[in-house]
Design goal:
heterodimer; A: 252 residues; alpha/beta; Rossmann fold; nine-stranded mixed beta sheet; globular; B: 316 residues; 2 domains; five-stranded parallel beta sheet; binds flavin-adenine dinucleotide
Chain lengths: 252, 316
């Protein structure tokens, strides 16, 4: 079986966001593989370690620097990488066409995709890819097991969680709790340097963006910051409730 | 026409459905707003929808009793195609965000995700949505014969019923087979208002001390306010509360009228799930806790003393 794990390189959550010339400036900031994608790579590795025969292929579509995130996936244990090198900012529907074509070429049967990607906050790539392939999808997955060709797992729904069963091929999007991603070990980092990353260009895929980004800004909502000293608990409580009732009007 | 998919639960329309109506009306398109209601035994829901839109399409069938991404997207795409919808608007709920991409692919349409504003400028849709863990607002534009958009819950005011009931039409759908089989579910049986729909959220962090402390302080404060309960990841990881209550990057996003944070430090990943709340209140013993940078009202003090005093004050 071939498993694709989709990789996005994003700003480290600890880093500050800066905006310059109408775009988020990433230069000089620490960039990492999205945590949500780490869950996907880890889960693919665990399926294999539990006995499923699998080749694990990490796929990234993005600028040259995205190779670093692919290398991380290879260092975790993925077998090889595919990097569609492009500076074009594709919207998620266009991107899914690229991913689906790669899945077909590679004859993949299982695709892991991050549940929500920490740069563009999109949740759509997994589902859009599944639709293009005419596959089912399991989103927000936090437990997974492969029984023959059936995936059995649990995922988050609108309210509460559900257990599910679905036959391969399928797209799975990840969620916190699915697993604890491993850290690449030094020998594996060394080994990963020799692993193949096939470079492709966007030209062959025949896609064009459908959504245009026209600008970004960082907003700060002005807050009142009326902070009371709680030494006299009863007095502070009374004042707080009064303010919430009369000034803010948020409680009856 | 603009097609909105009216979400519902337990026989009632969700707040998000009313918000979609407002977002749709704002586009001022000819042909009005059509609501599609999908489900089984949904007559009361359709009747409620009829009071806020210009036309209601009802698909009432046993196969629609339980949500499924493939079935929902097939249904919506079919109706959008037959009705020549120009814009398809779907709630930015977990389910809405997982089936809307399939609708967009089926219709070969652009997808605008989780929008907080939407404007029509000469046939081009301009929208805003959050990126970078809700720290950045991005402006996007799309045009085409049909555009699919999911709308962030709470971003638009709820439309108020007031007009004569719109006509309802039953529709026949060609639905695919369900492939993702649901074998069991654990619903939140809290008897409380849903976290993402509540006007007031009381959320607890590690500062409440224990699972018992959480029950006593956070539930104790939520009860008199009729509030929903939220929690930090630290609390969920400790097993004090279910994941369904987690607010933040990997939990739920809320923007109630009031968010009351009890013993929460205010880590960026938590803030990204609540920083759009209209009014933020915090109780924390550490005056330097980051949460105080984004509060409207706060008390620096021990939650074990302050919260019971607030509860008492509310009962007065
Ligand atoms: C005093 C202050 C008040 C803010 N109030 C809001 C607000 O009400 N709503 C809002 O959406 N954003 C708010 N922000 C966040 C702001 O708009 C930017 O999103 C944020 O500063 C950029 O992230 P950063 O990683 O550069 O922040 P950093 O430089 O890493 O952090 C600066 C401070 O900003 C606060 N902060 C960081 N991220 C967020 C966030 N996602 N939400 C809230 N606070 C955050 C933290 O308390 C932190 O101490 C506030 C920021 C500051 C400095
Ligand atoms: C990839 C990733 C995703 C994450 N996603 C989320 C998410 O979705 N949601 C989330 O919440 N977190 C998330 N986190 C975790 C986040 O970074 C913080 O660790 C977490 O939010 C902290 O929870 P807390 O505020 O309850 O605990 P703490 O940070 O430990 O804060 C406890 C606070 O309680 C106060 N306190 C203690 N005792 C008292 C008392 N007696 N009276 C008054 N105050 C008291 C303390 O002063 C302190 O400020 C994520 C982290 C990562 C890396």
């Amino acid at each position: 079986m071939r498993i694709l794990t989709l990789i996005r390189q994003v700003l480290d959550a600890e880093e500050s966001v800066r905006v310059r010339n109408g775009a988020v400036e990433l230069e000089g900031s620490k960039l990492v593989m999205d945590t949500m994608d780490e869950y996907g790579v880890e889960e693919a590795l665990r399926l294999r370690e539990r006995g499923s025969e699998a080749e694990i292929i990490a796929v990234a579509v993005g600028p040259t620097r995205a190779e670093e995130a692919l290398r991380t996936a290879l260092a975790m244990g993925a077998d090889r990488g595919i990097h569609v090198v492009t500076e074009v900012v594709l919207d998620v529907i266009a991107l899914s066409a690229v991913v689906a074509q790669i899945a077909k070429t590679e004859q993949a049967e299982l695709i892991f995709c991050g549940g929500q990607q920490a740069d563009w906050d999109s949740q759509a790539l997994g589902a859009a890819t599944a639709e293009r392939l005419q596959w089912p999808q399991a989103t927000w997955t936090n437990a997974l097991e492969l029984k023959g060709t059936m995936l059995v797992g649990r995922h988050e729904a609108d309210e509460g969680s559900e257990s599910f069963e679905v036959a391969l091929p399928v797209v799975v999007t990840t969620q916190q709790g699915l697993n604890e991603p491993r850290y690449p070990t030094l020998p594996n980092i060394m080994k990963s340097k020799k692993k193949e990353i096939r470079k492709e260009t966007l030209d062959g895929f025949g896609v064009a963006p459908k959504v245009k980004v026209s600008g970004v800004e960082i907003q700060v909502k002005e807050r009142l910051k009326k902070i009371l000293d709680g030494k006299d608990a009863a007095a502070a409580a009374a004042q707080l409730v009064k303010m919430l009732r009369e000034e803010a009007g948020v409680i009856g | 026409m603009i097609l909105i998919i009216a979400e519902h639960a337990n026989g009632a329309l969700n707040k998000s459905a009313y918000e979609l109506v407002t977002a749709a009306r704002g586009l001022n398109r000819e042909g009005g707003v059509t609501a599609l209601v999908l489900g089984s035994g949904v007559a009361p829901v359709a009747a409620a929808a009829a009071l806020v839109v210009d036309q209601v399409l009802v698909a009432d069938a046993p196969e629609l009793a339980q949500y499924d991404a493939e079935i929902w997207s097939a249904a919506v795409a079919q109706i959008a195609t037959e009705g020549e919808a120009e814009v398809v608007m779907i709630a930015g709920s977990r389910s809405g965000r997982e089936y809307s991409p399939r609708v967009a692919v089926k219709l070969d349409a652009p997808l605008l995700e989780d929008v907080i504003s939407l404007k029509d400028e000469g046939g081009v849709l301009h929208a805003e949505h959050y990126t970078y863990l809700t720290r950045v607002t991005e402006r996007v534009e799309a045009q085409g014969a049909v555009i699919v958009a999911t709308v962030k819950p709470g971003a638009f005011a709820a439309a108020v019923a007031g007009r004569a009931a719109a006509e309802q039409f039953d529709v026949d759908l060609e639905l695919p087979q369900r492939r993702l089989v649901i074998t069991g579910s654990t619903k939140e049986k809290t008897g409380r208002i849903a976290l993402t729909e509540a006007d007031i959220v009381v959320a607890g962090g590690r500062g409440v001390g224990s699972a018992e402390g959480f029950t006593q302080l956070v539930e104790g404060l939520a009860d008199p306010l009729g509030a929903a309960i939220g929690a930090t990841r630290a609390v969920v990881d400790a097993g004090w509360r279910p994941y369904a209550e987690q607010v933040g990057q990997t939990g739920k996003t809320v923007q109630p009228k009031a968010y009351i944070a009890v013993g929460i430090s205010g880590a960026v990943q938590h803030l990204s799930g609540m920083n759009k709340s209209k009014c933020v209140v915090a109780i924390n013993k550490d005056a330097d806790a980051p949460i105080f940078k984004i509060v409207d009202y706060g008390i620096v003090g021990d939650v074990k003393e302050i919260v019971p005093a607030v509860i008492q004050e509310l009962h007065k």
